[in-house]
Amino acid sequence: MKDGSFNPFNMAQQQFDAIAEKLGLDQATRDLLRFPNRELHFNIPVRMDDGSYKVFRGFRCQHNDARGPCKGGIRFHPQETIDTVRALSMWMTWKTAVVDIPLGGGKGGVICDPHNLSMREQEAICRGWVRQIYRLVGPVQDVPAPDVMTTGQHMIWMLDEYEKLTGMKSPGFITGKPLGMGGSLGRTEATGYGAMYTVREALKELGIDIKKTSASFQGFGNVSQYALELYTKWGGKAIAVSSWDNTDKKSYTFRKLDGIDFSKLIEITNRFGEIDKVKAKALGFEILDGSAWIEQEVDILVPAALENQVNAETAPKIKDTVKLICEGANGPTTPEADEIIKSKNILLIPDFLANAGGVTCSYFEQVQCNMNYFWTKEEVLEKLDQKMTEAYHAVSAMARNKKVYMRDAAYMISISRVAEACKMRGWV
Ligand code: NAD
């Protein structure tokens, strides 16, 4: 998606250039990693329900597969652009590298709006997408997953088409499948829990007892719900949650200074993560402005809704009590806000580390599918905890040793791992 003049691929390249400079990477490695290794643009002709034909534009970018098959979602969006897909594929390379899973980075998309398409038409787009590139994707080449406006149903149609074309059962071709159809237990919890595993480790390093902390969350969707559930289960006190209200077309912050009871809040939340104002009031919540979540006197802030929320305007409102920010969302903090966070001496767990639990569990789904043997939920979550904990400590140690910001440390680890894999393969 492109918002005005903002070009995510330019931003991804700038971020990369800055770290490449810090790491002193040679020119050939920089040239290799600044662009996707391969990108595919293709037509998907579909016979519509009214009998007419419409041609949709599809993409897949395989940014880098030096560490393993590419991995990344497929988005359906009317404003999808190749530059968004390029940027996201690059960020997937860094995300899989920071948690050290043997995968690379990929992303795909189709310019279309599922709101205006019947399920049959969406199925035709899914099958058409696979028909165009099935020779270049698969369990050992490139593994897609759901993303914006695509679901487990879309994944199953894509899997079915892939298996028909290749004549083999290959459930490891795609992840995000429903349970019982090759999906993994623990995937729903993975991103929120993963974020909290890193928070737990960060608090240990800061010498703070989680039971004595309070936190404020932005968003109450998939990521935030599970993050808040685990945080409160561990004894933390969540005092505020901000969420979108689709009737009023604005967001509100729901505050309860004596602590939020997760099981009660979830009961008054719809499937889009929107909290019922009237019922919240009845439960004793104060209803504040949507931006109030960031101004709370808490120890921990968890932006887990959207990008661009902690910015030059909002970051100065962060209270001095805040010691830790865990970025559950992708890209919630702007570079200007990063400077403010640094000056306030707040420890930041950057997005592509904090929310990597999702892709890590997708990797587990792929592994389970490839061996056709499924783990229990406890087993999945235990492995997830181990991966996230290791990744957190590697980044934290790098930040300490090189005296750099946590976001830079995470990039330095990812980029050097990928650069080294390219070198070992003799690519550059
Ligand atoms: P979701 O759609 O389930 O939930 C989004 C939440 O944000 C909802 O509670 C919604 O009410 C709230 N929200 C929307 N606009 C808001 C606003 N202006 N102010 C306050 N709240 C607002 O989404 P999700 O899956 O929880 O994803 C949240 C973020 O985490 C996104 O940036 C996403 O890219 C990222 N992420 C998600 C996963 C995953 O596995 N779900 C993995 C990695 C990253």
Give your account of this protein's structure.
The mean pLDDT is 96. By secondary structure, this protein is α/β, with parallel strands linked by helices. Helix 1 packs parallel to helix 3 and helix 6 packs across helix 12. It has 14 helices and 12 strands. It has helices at residues 8-23, 27-33, 82-98, 119-133, 152-166, 187-206, 222-233, 262-267, 277-282, 335-343, 351-354, 357-371, 377-402, 406-424; strands spanning 38-47, 53-64, 70-77, 105-111, 142-146, 214-218, 237-245, 250-255, 286-289, 300-303, 324-326, 347-349. It has 2 domains: 8-171, 3-Layer(aba) Sandwich (Rossmann fold), CATH 3.40.50.10860; 188-345, Rossmann fold, CATH 3.40.50.720. Bound molecules: nicotinamide-adenine-dinucleotide. Nicotinamide-adenine-dinucleotide binds at residues 191, 218-224, 242-244, 251, 273-274, 290, 304-306, 328-330, 355, 358.
Identify the notable features of this structure and list them briefly.
seven-stranded mixed β-sheet; single chain; 18% strand; five-stranded mixed β-sheet; 14 helices; Rossmann fold
**How many domains make up the 3D coordinates?**
2
The CATH topology of the largest domain: Rossmann fold
Strand content: 15-25%
User: Distance N terminus to C terminus?
Assistant: 32 Å
How many alpha or pi helices?
14
Task: Tell me briefly what this model is.
The chain has 428 residues and is an alpha/beta fold.
